[in-house]
Amino acid sequence: MDDATRIELEAAAFRRLRDHLRARTDVQNIDLMNLAGFCRNCLSRWYQEAAAERGLEMSKDEGREIVYGMPYDEWRARHQTEAAPDQQAAFEKNRPDH
């Protein structure tokens, strides 16, 4: 497989993951962190870091809007729920270092 095709496939897989996470608003970030060690915020930060590596300026809010499909504060108001004590405890126990 040539590099251009690989990059196209990787980009398509990213877009599908992004769109899936946008559609699954029932899945909270703390659930993603506890189960997979990353969440929408991590994904948006990785996107922002990739832009910076290529000399492109991107704010935290711009990166989040790409992943969330709307401003982060709007997403939180619409979809985020309070984390349960057991979710918070699991997060503190397994907090990723990234």
UniProtKB/TrEMBL annotation:
It comes from the Bacteria. InterPro entries: SMc04008-like_domain, SMc04008-like_sf. Signal peptide: none annotated. It holds the Pfam family DUF1244. Residues 27-93 form the SMc04008-like domain. Transmembrane segments: none annotated. This is SMc04008-like domain-containing protein. It comes from Albimonas pacifica.
